[in-house]
Amino acid sequence: MKLLCEMAHEGLVCDAFTYNTLIHGYCQAGKLAVAQKVFNRMVDCGVPPDIVTYNILLDCLCANGKIEKAMVIVEDLQKSEMDVDIITYSIIIQGMCRNGKVEEAWCLFCSLTLKGVKP
Length: 119
Hints:
Elements: H1 2-9, H2 16-28, H3 32-44, H4 51-63, H5 67-79, H6 86-98, H7 102-114
Helix pairs in contact: 2-3, 2-4, 3-4, 4-5, 4-6, 5-6, 6-7
Organism: Noccaea caerulescens
PPR repeats: 15-49, 50-84, 85-119
Keywords: Repeat
């Protein structure tokens, strides 16, 4: 977060790529709470998150055992105009499997193939 403040102080404008890089770095460092704060700041600053942003957060949530929260985000994305991609679904299916929800992962996979989504 300090880096964002320094960048703003220098008059630099952050774009989605900048925020995605920071969010990814915090996720890799195991700092999910800070990554979520950066995401919130991104939205507050009027920078629209893209599917890459969401995929980074979803992967981090799944890696931290927060599959239910990840599923809520996916459901919200499906209702929005955001194009959920095969990477998003792969992250969720892998996260479900990692968190012992193999049957749910299989059901999601089957429903996607019925909708014509190719793995």
